[in-house]
Amino acid sequence: CEAALGEMEQARSALRDALQLKPSDAHTLFQIAAIYEQRFGQRDEALQWLARSIEQGQTWKEIDRAPMLAALRADPRFQRLRGQ
Hints:
Elements: H1 8-21, H2 26-38, H3 43-55, H4 60-65, H5 76-82
Helix pairs in contact: 2-3
């Protein structure tokens, strides 16, 4: 919510808090990837977090359907991550 309101430092703090609570949770890592992509505009970071979420078991079904990742899915680095 903070990122959507333009409060980026508070958003980053909230992400750090989430990671402390669930550092290996695939869905949490996936959500962090989506926030880095859509709210922060940091695709490199988004791809790194997405890779971590996949390592923890994030499903491709959810990744493929996430509206926040529509532009990221067209990136060749995403295609490599996807194995295509």
